[in-house]
Amino acid sequence: MDSPELQQARSRAAEFGIPAISPATGATLRTLAATLQAKTVVEVGTGAGVAALYLLAGMAPQGVLTTIDVEAEHQRQAKASFKASGIAPGRTRTILGRPGEVLPRLADSAYDLVLVAEWPEQLAEHVEQGLRLLRPGGVLAITNALWHDQVPDPARRDEPVTALRRIFARIREDESLAPVLLPVGSGLLVASKLR
Ligand SMILES: C[S@@+](CC[C@H](N)C(=O)[O-])C[C@H]1O[C@@H](n2cnc3c(N)ncnc32)[C@H](O)[C@@H]1O
């Protein structure tokens, strides 16, 4: 069950037509952040800040979430959600811009968790950047990884379904990663960086 603050953030997302992760996906991300005792997290696709609130709830108290989105209005709503939830301003770094331009500026091996939300056209590029950012032992997560349950359907051959299949294969074949596809929400791909 979402807290009143999360319910408010979800209402804000719905009001502005911004997609948000399911409560089960959020709870899984919160658990991952807590298990990692995450101090540094990057989120690609801020939306209205719903996923961010789950991540912040699991992260170490002094942890900082860097979140990137190209939509100023979405980030305005996210900031309102952070404020309403009592998140200290220093715990979030919201960056307005295209992830393809922002991610290359972030440091190698400096992050505990990278969450990539949607952005199908550039997903492969964001995954590569995300893996570069992770420290050994860090975790990459991709939400909506089954793309509304279309990825397992062999009749679907359009983008972004094929892009996701290629990303799954790339991650599966990489011996430095330990991946699992969790059937929460519309699929949550989680991959630990072993080294
Ligand atoms: C699904 S929402 C993020 C939701 C958020 N992670 C959550 O669950 O609360 C995806 C966000 O990424 C941005 N986005 C995704 N794909 C995009 C694209 N191709 N071009 C521009 N913005 C995109 C949207 O602005 C939107 O805010």
TrEMBL record:
Keywords, ordered alphabetically: Methyltransferase, S-adenosyl-L-methionine, Transferase
CDD domains: AdoMet_MTases
PROSITE patterns recorded: SAM_OMT_I
DNA repair is among the record's keywords: no
One MF term in the entry's GO annotations: O-methyltransferase activity
One GO term (biological process): methylation
Transmembrane segments: none
Ranges in coiled-coil conformation: none
Protein name: Putative O-methyltransferase YrrM
Organism: Rarobacter faecitabidus
Origin organism lineage: Bacteria, Bacillati, Actinomycetota, Actinomycetes, Micrococcales
